[in-house]
Amino acid sequence: MTIHVNGIDLYYEQTGQGPPLILLHGNGESHRIFRRATQQFAARYTVYTIDSRGHGKSARVKELHYADMAGDVAAFIAALGLEQPMLYGFSDGGIVGLLLAIGHPGLLSRLVISGASLNPDSTSAGWLRFFKMAYRLTRGAKWKLMLEEPDFTEAQLARVNVPTLVLAGERDMIAEAHTRVIAGAIPGARLRILPGENHMSYVINSPKLYDIVAPFLGEGS
Q1: 70, containing H or E segment
Q2: Which domain does 170 fall in, by range?
């Protein structure tokens, strides 16, 4: 389905019945990375999987900014009349989730983020070099986004007032020290560093994601 919000057409899919749960993908992906998780979560929740602007089946844009993406999701929630949905965001989706919680207090009931960055320097040196090379070759908006944004301060993160679970893989491309800063700055946030996992191994169409996230979401159901 397509909905026009915040001046843009967003593609989304809706599955299941129960309290609302939004799943947000990462950079260069689409809602399709959650095919497995959607089936699992749909037994308990109404699941909304959104293609971010410039991704999947949503409208193309010349520039990408996380603030615009967060505005899209806030407008999506308002347009559908969702009452305090829960939200899981992977990588870029986690950044969007944090911006929503910071900028729209009370909008969400629970927040789970995984592999989210504090700033571009959160990315390991090898991956950062790859992103820079890819941008030099393509001038693509998705690469530029990761090289320039986000830029969270601990003061901003301290404004998150929703129960939050922060996840990262033990071998994540996001520096663990930065993940710990994020979790430490959010009042009451829980942190899980997942043994043996990398940035996406437990997320991309993985049955592991449900087992990791569902217990935390269930506390608010």
Answers
A1: helix 66-80
A2: 2-117+153-215
Is the residue at 142 inside a domain? no
Which pair of tokens denotes residue 48?
């909304």
Q: Which sign does the torsion angle of CA 117, 27, 172, 73 carry?
A: positive
Length in residues, the chain: 221
| Residue 12 falls inside a structural domain | yes
For 117, the token pair is 């960055």
Mean pLDDT, range 189-204, rounded to an integer: 98
**What tens digit of pLDDT does each residue of 81-135 get?**
999 999 999 999 999 999 999 999 999 999 999 999 999 999 999 999 999 999 9
For residue 45, give the DSSP letter. Answer: S
Domain count, the chain: 1
Condensed to tens digits (0 to 9), the pLDDT of residues 141-186 reads 999 999 999 999 999 999 999 999 999 999 999 999 999 999 999 9
7, part of any domain: yes
